[in-house]
Amino acid sequence: MKAKTTHILFDCDNTLVLSESLAFEACAQLSNEILASQNIADRYTGEQLLVDFVGKNFRGMLVDLQAKYQFTIPPEELDKYVSMEEDKVIEKLVADLVPCPGANQVLSKLVASNKYTLAVVSSSAYRRVFASLQKASQLPFFLPTPSITPESRIFSAATSLPVPTSKPDPAIYLFACEQLGAPPIACVAVEDSKSGATAAVRAGIPVIGYVGSYEGEEKKREMRKMLEEVGCVSVMEHWDEFEEALERAGCN
Length: 252
Description:
The protein has 252 residues and is of the alpha/beta class. It is built from 10 helices and 8 strands. Helices cover 48% and strands 12% of the residues.
């Protein structure tokens, strides 16, 4: 029998906020500039990047691009590109981002219940996550008292860890559990991507999948199947299914 759930750990991008298409649109230009600088002819649209790299941060994306096209970016230059991409994406998110439908209502209800500690565990850089939550009016849900600092409830694989990484590496989930003082089995994660769900599963955390941010019924079915295969104990299509999803997962 599962231990009592005390903490709920939310992915941010396309789980709490509709950000991925905006972010990949913003970083496609920079990705293409990097490929051009390496004399590589291929170019990406934001949509193509989203399909190939959903759930990964820009650092993880560049690692994969280097492996795919067999080139190397020196560490200091990689850091520069990551910073450039972060600025471009935040500008786009602050202008156009909206929350996932129903997410704010669920977060409000969870805070009011006083049953769980809520935290965000993301691959994205802390500045981007903070800006997204602020734009979507979600930041107060993770800062319930003035004594709580944002860093204590928002964890970024890109900036919180001693060595930056990206999901599906479980490091950021293990770090979040350690910082929160919560064993993985007492947590439940909410994830929309294969890489994110894999990270949580590898950390020993039960996972609820979310497919509501994907367009089209065929894509939703495809992602539901993938998330179930990765190990999600429950999958929901809309945030109004969250309480039922918790019950199905034995996490309520």
